[in-house]
Amino acid sequence: MTTDPGAGPGPRPGRPRRGARTAPGGERSRARAFGLRTRLLLAFLLVAVVSAGTTAALTYREARTALLKTAQDTAVSSFRDHVQQTGFGLPVRKEGLEEVLRDLARKGKPRPWVVFAEYGSLRASSGENPVSTVITPELRRAARANPRGHFERVVKDGVPYLTIAMPTVFKTGPDDVLPTGLVLYAVMRMTDEQVNVDALLIAARDGALPGLAVALIPGLIAARSVLRPVRQLHRATRSLGSGRLDTRIPVRGSDELADLARTFNESTGQLERSVRELREAEERARRFASDVSHELRTPLAGMLAVTEVLEEDADGLDADTARAVRLVSAETGKLAVLVEDLMEISRFDARAAELNADEVDVAEAIRKTLHNRHWTDDRVRTELPDGIRARLDPRRFDLVIANLVGNALKHGGAPVTVRLRTAARSAGPPVLITEVADSGPGIRPAVLPHIFDRFYKADAARTRSAGSGLGLAITLENVKLHGGTISAGNLPGGGAVFTVEIPLHAEEAGG
Amino acid sequence: MRRAQTRRRAAAVALAAAAVPLLGACGIRDTDVIEAGGPASVQAFFNSDSEMLLFFRTPDGGVSPVIRTSGSEDGFGDRYVHRTENQDPSGRVPTEMVVAALLAGPRPEDRAAGLTTALPARRPGTTVKITPTGDDTVTAGLPFPLKNLDPMAVRQLTCTIAYSRDADGRTVVHLKGQDGTSSTATCALSPDNPGTTPSPTRVQR
Fold first, then answer.
1. What's the CATH number of domain A53-199, 3.30.450, 3.40.50, 1.20.1740, 1.10.3470?
2. Is A113 exposed, middle or buried (0-12, 13-18, 19+ CB in 10 A)?
3. What is the pLDDT of residue A315?
4. Which chain B residue's Cα is nearest to A193?
5. Which residue of A243, A289, A403, B7 lies most exposed, with the fewest beta carbons within 10 A?
6. How far apart, in Å, do the first and last CA atoms of chain A sit?
7. ipTM higher than 0.85?
């Protein structure tokens, strides 16, 4: 049975702090260039720009067209009316023509205009120049080819002019007219119209711009109404991730975001229930293992005592019985070790294991361990620099070293090397590194990921090993209890190596 | 990423579509020549009973009418025109007299306005023979050959004769030259009937 590190009871110490540290980043990200708020505002602005701009532009164009059309039609019809009130002899004589033109010019509506006359080779005007520079050849040609009124708007040097060509006819009978050959032209500056058109443009612009400003308000409101639930969801998700499974979001309204909040709450509730059930199941399983090992311990102690007595008397028994007694005694001993290991691992699982740390000389502690296990011959080599002191639980460290060296001797091959050194780490305090290397064939790569699993047998053929199958698992738990790590690997020249790294909390004395 | 780019491009297109009518239509712009109503009808003090319309050539290649009073040149016209013979029932000035006045050429006031004639100079002792050949048709026998006559001269003659016959100038004029060449045409100067041919048609015989 393996324990998922993420499903441990209670929040793990590192995570809430990390969540708290990333929170300012989340605040900053809200102001990012193309965040939801910016995009919503831009979309609202775009819609407002397009609608206000199009409306203003179309209104402006229509109004301008209407304004100009009115001015032009008024001017053309007024010019025709005034011309019709004049009389000309045929042929038109130059004498007196300018007076008639000046008279016409004074009557100009809505503003005085300059009147030009063209007849044969005669050119006359009400102004200073007899020939206009504004009237285009196209207008002359149109007036000559088709004896009807024509006008053309000409922009000359930025000033708009209205030029009107008015061919004249006279009556030859009650219903019949004949062109006289005289064409009168009126040239009028459209300054007032330009002022009005400019005013229209300013009005259109001044109408559109506040519209854009006003469009920002619904944009901001919409962005707020979307962003607030999103932020709540953001916070709730982070809180959930840091282990607070009772996190819920207040559900407001009945829109899609409210649905999302409701779904989130339901999912969180289900998750909370599942996790609680899992924890309870795990708790029951652990308690069962713990209870079983406890219940086994007392009868085993009795059996162990009896088998020892029997083994002492085995020499007096016949050969078959003696072998059976020795076998029972040995297996009972293994069973006792297994039960002890099971109880130890149950303590770890129940987090009942305590670290009784003391400042020790590490090299001395290792030497003591090897000496106690009688590994003092040349099977075990040591490279133990003196003077390295660390805060360790001596009993647990002893177990770690003994287990690793014992494993190395059992599964690897002599000689086994125990090395001790310290190393600096860029993050965190310096670490104490203990390496146990053997000279055996090494660990198969397929086995390496499972080497610290409980009851995992590296050698599938050897189902009955001397160990309980919990040795490396207990070692891992002991190292973890020190806040350290353990890793297994193979040396380039053959042989397995186990590396234990434990943070050095103590000041290094005299190193 | 791709979708964001597409969206941004779409936004740019929409902005441009909104900006084009806004920016491209400011102020007052040029227009083409636009027709606006009929011509101006001026008072020319034309009296068809005592006055005649003579058509002279203008500098820009058209014909233009001038008003001539018939009584003002008695010394000229009566030698060629027998007023009693061809008295028009409508009381108009006789066509022979009008054509004679046309052949006499433009006067100084006409020339001052740039009006000229394309017709040959009048030779003394020649007459114009006018024969109505139908309701709206008239034949004019000319005292000079028609063959090498300028088209403008034909037009002057056609219009002058047509308007001396009728106020609407729609009479079909059949010109017969001294050389036997003849030409049929209508005047077509009136703005009311732009459908007729703008220049006289000539038929060579």
1. 3.30.450
2. buried
3. 81
4. B28
5. B7
6. 43
7. no
pLDDT in tens, A291-343: 888 888 888 889 889 888 888 888 888 888 888 988 888 888 888 888 888 88
Matching CATH number, A1-16+242-353, of 1.10.287, 1.10.12, 1.10.760, 2.60.40: 1.10.287
* DSSP string of A68-107, one letter each residue: HHHHHHHHHHHHHHHHHT-B--SSPPSTTHHHHHHHHHHT
What is the DSSP pairing of strand A159-171 with strand B40-41? parallel
Residues across chain B = 205
Helix/strand/coil for B70: helix
Q: How far apart are CA A119 and CA A290, in angstroms?
A: 127
Q: Is A70 on the interface with B (CB under 8 A)?
A: no
Which of A172, A179, A182, A99 is closest to B114 using CA atoms? A182
The answer to whether residue A78 neighbours chain B at the CB level (below 8 Å) is no
Of the candidates A260, A266, A231, which has an alpha carbon nearest to the alpha carbon of residue A247? A266
Q: Which has the closest alpha carbon to B156: B109, B204, B116?
A: B116
Confirm or reject contact between A116 and chain B (CB < 8 A): no
User: Which sequence spans correspond to the domains of chain A?
Assistant: 1-16+242-353, 53-199, 358-503
User: Rounded to the nearest 10 degrees, how much is the dihedral formed by the CA atoms of A12, A17, A19, A25?
Assistant: -160
Q: How far is CA A495 from the centre of its chain?
A: 46
Distance from B48 to chain A by nearest Cα, in Å?
7
Q: Give domain A358-503's CATH architecture.
A: 2-Layer Sandwich (3.30)
Nearest CA in chain A to B42: A84
- DSSP assignment of A442-499 equals ---TTTGGGTTSTT--SSTT--S-SS-S-HHHHHHHHHHHTT-EEEEEE-TTS-EEEE
Locus of tokens 């780019």:
B5
Which residues from B are below 8 Å from A151, CB to CB? Answer: 33-34, 36
SS3 label, residue B134: coil
CB A176 within 8 A of CB B169: yes
- In three-state secondary structure terms, B68 is strand
- Label the pairing between strands B172-176 and B137-141: parallel
Residue B139: beta bridge partners? B131, B174
Q: Tell me whether A183 touches chain B (CB under 8 Å).
A: no
Question: Which residues are within 8 A (CB) of A461 and not within 5 positions of it... i.e. 6 or more apart?
Answer: none
The pLDDT-based confidence of B184 (bands split at 50, 70, 90) is confident
Domain boundaries, chain B: 51-185
The partner residue sitting opposite B46, judged by closest CB among A57, A80, A170, is A170
User: Which residue in A57, A142, A171 is closest to B22 by CB distance?
Assistant: A57
Cβ contact A87–B45 (<8 Å)? yes
Contact between A279 and A7 (Cβ < 8 Å): yes
Residues pairing with A188 in the sheet:
A162
State pLDDT tens for residues A174-212: 778 888 888 999 998 888 778 888 888 888 778 778 878
Output the pTM of the full model.
0.57
Of B18, B28, B33, the CB nearest to A50: B18
Lowest mean pLDDT among A194-198, A416-420, B24-28, B159-163: B24-28
SS3 A29: helix
How far, in Å, CA of B102 to CA of B121, rounded?
10
DSSP structure class, residue A415:
P
